[in-house]
Every structure is written in structure tokens, then in C-alpha cells.
Amino acid sequence: MRAPLIILPLLTLFASCSSNPSMTDSTFSRLKQLDQTAPTALQAPHREVHHGRSLDDPYHWLKDKGYPVVDDKQVIDYLEQENSYYQEFLKPNQSLADKVFAEFKGRTDEEETSVPYVDNGYEYRWFFRSGEEYRTRTRTNLATGEQTVFMDETALAEGHEYFVIGDWEISPDNRYLAYSFDTAGDERYQVRIKDLKTGEYLADVLSDVQGSIEFSSDGSKLMYSLLEKDRWHSKYINVHVIGTEQTDDKAIYHEADDGYFIGFSITSSKEFIVLVSSQGERQESHILPADFSGEPIQLVSRDEGFQQTIDHAHGEFYILANDTHKNSRLVKVSDKRPLKENWETLIKGSDESYLLGLKTFKNFLVVKSRDLGLEKIHVRGYDNKHHVVQFPEPIFTAGLGINAEFDQDFIRLNYESMITPASVFDYEIGSKRMTPRKVQKIPSGYNKHEYQTQRIMAPARDGEMIPVSLVYKKGLKRDGSQPLWLYGYGAYSATINPGFSTMRLSALDRGFVYAVAHVRGGAMMGYQWYLDGKLDKRTNTFNDFVDVAKHLIKEQYTSAGNVSISGRSAGGELVGAAVIQAPHLWRSANLGVPFVDVLNTMLDASLPLTPPEWKEWGNPIESADDYDLIASYSPYDNIAEREYPPMFVSGGINDPRVTYWEPAKWTARMRALKTDDNLLVMRINMGAGHFSNSGRYGRLKDYAEEYAFMFLAHGIKK
User: Fold this and answer.
1) Is-contact 574 489, C-beta < 8 A?
2) Which of 92, 172, 294, 572 is deepest in the core (most CB within 10 A)?
3) 17-106+462-713 sits in which CATH class?
4) What's the pLDDT tens digit per position in 570-618?
5) Cis peptide before 68 (omega within 30 of 0)
6) CA distance 391 to 432
7) Helices and strands (H, E) in the chain, number of each type
8) pLDDT mean over 546-557
9) pLDDT grade, residue 4 (50/70/90)?
10) pLDDT per position as a tens digit, 27-85
């Protein structure tokens, strides 16, 4: 998928821009191109014909023919020229980037530690040592009191430019630690297994792993998904017997269709593994005993054409299914006779309540919903009695934290809002009491009462009302003079929740309003909200974003030409489309790992992530209508000779989700066609992938540079 980790930036308002001492006198000055000549990419003729339509792509050569190996000298030279040009921009502005980074770091708890949790006789926690990029993980034996470090991520990362833990698991007998890790950013993981009794690593090494792992109930086997060689796609879920060679591993599940993603998870009861194949709105689920014995049993067929979330307790499967209503219903069925005809509805589907998540416990189950755009946590007993958890703010983000044990009388919740730092609570079911366990520490100081957040509704051009989450510093003057940062995503039903960001404070304190446009393609207002932003309704997403900006301008939160926009991955596509549709509205645009070359990517069935995504974007290979629709909005294909705002573009050479050539081709074509002298820079990470730098400080430095670009575009130099 092209749905990335989304880190929301920022915004607020202290007063009008003219009263902000960090602003220049020229409110609408632009960030101009450098004196140094910008790189010019070679144009090489390349034409394809589909459905009688000609598709010319003079920058097709930027896709290395040897991909996923990228070693074509001409390609590397161009990317390095762009990086050098970016460094030329950064040099005179390094002090601003450093200042912003120092602000980010000053709000970072150098020795942050987690809330401990108990699992299978041990108490687990993690912490950062001062100055370190990665976590140290410990566990304490509750019977003996002995504490040990079972995983030191800083030590594991030593010698690697990039290092990320994908997943880790402790075997049910508490003997083994297994973890997956990535040292290239390409999301092709290795797995190592450590004997926690001896402290020694086993000889077992698993390669080409998709990321997730799970032990069998007796701890003798490990389940994983195997990536195809040279393709970031998995067709097999394998079982590895500890102490044997990976070549001896057996496939427990095979997906023959290239158009489906596969995955697995263990139920809360720890009795079953759920195996899933999914393609857009269509999903198929099988169940397997947790000891990995026998053959998987189909619970739901893909032919049924709907999605499911499955958990288990007390001899019954509990399922969220959107078969009878797009917003899903809750059903249960015996694990002895789990046929669909035996399903019993517990909560009916509703236009007002979108059922998002499910988790079972021994004495109750928890359902998360979003009711008309507002989140709720429902606690439901197996006797059907239920209540809703009460939170202190009307607009917030809440979800289940780590609830490792099936038998517990509380639920651990994560909570935040746009002005409330990330918090952890334990909610006691019997007393309905909320006990705070952790509030995000901000060492440099933070007073939430200096800031204000609100939810407004903005009219789209077709009459739909689009939710917008806003945060700004108190004292906002609605006179149109303040800068505004608008963020959006709008794909895969992913919803940008109104959460907290310490980074965002750097913009809020410089006079920005921060806005999240909850556009169609996400699911803020229910599952239909998602359906109304995909396939033949895809352009609703882009129109919503532009119309939200126009409404904010009309309501004088800002003014035309004083709005900066940003998005990552599919959100980068959104920003690219907005730049094409209404370039005059934007002060600057940040396209992070942007999915901007939609038509070419959906025409390339050799890319492993393309066939599964035809249900999201359309299949232009088979359908002329899909071809024409995608061609009408694909940002890369719609760049024309005209003026555009300053742009910051980023990518990763090892990115398997949005391949490096998408930002590179966008930048090359934009340079050739734009008629303005506004600055366009591209930063390609030559040692990472979709999620930029690894480590907490490496990523902060990346974002500090992006903030500096935006600030400079608005004339803010301090």
C-alpha cells in the first residue's frame, strides 16, 4: 500500500502576521530559485499506446531497468545532482533548520520510558537512554523480581545507516525472542531468534520476510510471510521449525492471485491464527489453531465481497463485517460451526455509527466506533450490557493501547487531542474510573491553555460538507493575514485523526493556523466517505481539499497565496493534484514520497504493489474508462506550462511503496515546464525508503528542514 506513517506537522496563530516579529515586511514574498543553475534532466523519447491513446513520457528512463537494484550511473548522477542542489539551498538556511531541530529536540523527553505492562508472568517496558536514537527493552520476572534487557535496539542498530524493528515476539514458554529488522528501508526484513535463557542467538536466520511474525502456542515454530525474490509482494505464509534451515520451511497458506495482499494475526484468546487475503473492499479469512496444526479453515470467502475484523473468546468468533451495511455490524458465531448462515447479529449496521475496531477480553469486549466523525470506545459484556467510555474533551483521538492479557479487569487506552499531549490511561471496567498512567513529557514546557482547537464544516463544490480540524494559538484574528498550513491524505479509508504533535508547536508559535482537511477517500464520516473518494469518484478527494482551502480563505482564517500544503504518499498525490488544480492558492507545497505518477504505475503490472491496488485506483490496462479517468487527474501527467508555488519534494531510493522515480520524474518535468522562478528542491534519501531516516533524531532533522522550507516561503527567517 501507499499508506505511510503519517506525521502531522503543525500550525496556529498568535496574532496577525504583520505583528509577528519573525515575519518579513513582504507578506507575500516567494521563496525564489537559487543563483546556482538547477539540475536539468535528460529528455528521452518514450511512447506507449493504450486503448488507442498515446502516452509520452520523456523521463521514463529514470526508472532503473535493473530495479529493484538501482545502479544506473545516469540515474544516480541525476539524483545526486538534485541532492547537491538541495544542499545549496540548505547551506545559507542551515541555522534556521538547526533552530527548528533544537526546538523539536527540546520538546523530546531524552529518557522517555513506557508504561509497563504484564504478559505471561513478566512485566515489560521500554526506555530511551539520553541521546540515543533507539529503545532499550526490558522485562521483569514477576515471580523472582529479576530484570533483564532482552533487546537493546541501539546496539542492534550499530553500524547501520538505517535500522528499523518490524515486529518482535516472545515465545509462549518465555524462552525465545524473535524479531524482524530492516537495514535498508526497503521493508524486506530479516528475522533472528535469541535464546533468552542462554543469551545466545540461534543459527536460524530468515530472509525476505514481510515483517510480521508469530510463535506457535508451544513455541517450537514461527510463522511469517515470505516475500518473492525481487518483488515486494508475498504469496506464501510459511511456518519455520526452530533449529532448521529456512529452505525446509513449509507453506501453510498460498495466495495465487497477484491482486491480493496477505497477512495474519493471533486472536486475543490466543487460540487461533487468522489468515487474511485482501484486495480493496474484498477480503477472505481462514482460521488455524494456534499450534499451527491441521489445514486452515475458511471462515469467509472472497466471493462474499466484504471486509471483516475477527477476534475470538469463549468458543465464539466475534466479527465486524460490512456485509449488510457499509459501516459494519458486529456478529458472533460458534467456532465449531462458523458458517455465515449461523452468524448472530449483536450490533446492527448504522448510518450514524462506523464500527472501526474490535478486541475481546475474558469478561468483556471493546468496540471502537466513529459516530458522525467523533470517536467512541464501547465496552460490552457478554451478557450484552454495554456502556461508552467518557472522555474529557469533545474532539479527541482515542484507541486501545497495549492490552497483552486476555484476563484483565481494565483496558489500557491511548488518548490525545490537538491541544492535549499523548496520554495513557487505564480504564477500570467495574468502577468506570479513568486512571492516568502517563502524559507525554515536554521538557521545554507546554501550556495547553495557550492554544485552541475546533472542528468546522466546509462546503465542497458538490454540496457535501467536509470536516476540518483546526488548531491555533489563542488570540487569532480572523482578518486573513495569518499563514495557514493545510494537511490532507484521503485514500485507503485512512483517517487523519485530530492528534497532538510537539513539532507542530514550532509553527503554531510562529503564527500559523494548522488545519486537517478530512477529505473523502478517508473515512472520517463513515465507510461511504471512503467509497466516495475512490475509483470513479477519486477527484472528490482533490476537490474537497481545494474547496476546504477556499472556505478557510473566505472565513478569513488566511488568504489566497498564504496557504502552505503538505501530504505524504497518497497524500503527496493529493498535494500534487491541488498544485495542478489551483496553483495560485498556495504559498508552498511539500510533497513527501508522493504518489504522483499514478497512470504509469497503474499501467505497470510488473510492480508488485500495482495489481492489488487496481481496486483502489482502477485498472487502466483493462479499462479505457479507467485509463481516461486516471489520466485526467494523475499529477505528473497534468503538469502544464504555467506558474507554480515553491515546492519541497522528497523520496527514498529503496522505497517499495512509492518508488523513487515518482518524485524524481515529477521534479524533472516540473522543472522543464514551470514558467516561474519559485524554488523547487528535491531531497532523495540514498539509504532509506518510504519512512525516511530511522531513529528518533534522524527523522526530526528531516522534518526540521521541511519546516524551514515552509517558514522561509512565508518570509519567516527565525
Assistant:
1) yes
2) 572
3) alpha beta
4) 999 999 999 999 999 999 999 999 999 999 999 999 888 899 899 999 9
5) yes
6) 11
7) 12, 37
8) 98
9) very low
10) 345 799 998 899 999 999 999 999 999 999 999 999 999 888 899 999 999 999 999 99
Active site residue 258: no
C-alpha closest to that of 669 among 76, 85, 86, 62: 62
- Residue among 13, 59, 153 nearest 662 (CA): 59
Q: Which residues of 241-260 are buried (b: 16+ CB within 10 A; e: fewer)?
A: ebeeebeebeebbebeeebb
Supply the pTM of this predicted model. 0.92
Tally the C-alpha atoms within 13 A of residue 551's C-alpha that lie toward its C-beta: 22
Question: What is the model's pLDDT at position 186?
Answer: 82
- Using pLDDT thresholds of 50, 70 and 90, give the confidence band for residue 658: confident
569 is catalytic: yes
| Distance between CA atoms of residues 451 and 500, nearest Å | 12
> Residue 195, exposed/middle/buried by CB under 10 A (0-12, 13-18, 19+)?
middle
Residue of 690, 692, 694, 714 with catalytic role: 690
Strand 234-241: give its sheet, edge to edge: 164-170, 176-182, 189-195, 201-215, 221-227, 234-241, 250-254
Q: Which of 548, 461, 462 shows the shortest CA–CA distance to 513?
A: 548
Give the H or E element holding residue 81: helix 73-90
Residue recorded with cell 479505457: 624
Catalytic residue among 182, 509, 655, 702: 655
Q: Which of 569, 588, 650, 692 is catalytic?
A: 569
Q: How far is CA 71 from CA 63, 74, 485, 643, 653, in A?
A: 11, 9, 37, 34, 11
Q: What is the pLDDT of residue 348?
A: 97
CA dist 416 and 448 (Å) reads 12
pLDDT at 25: 32
Q: Which of 565, 585, 550, 584 is nearest to 676 (CA)?
A: 584
Catalytic residue status for 690? yes
- Dist. CA 361–CA 366, nearest whole Å: 8
In the numeric block, which cell numbers belong to residue 683?
531531497
pLDDT band at residue 1 under the 50/70/90 scheme: very low
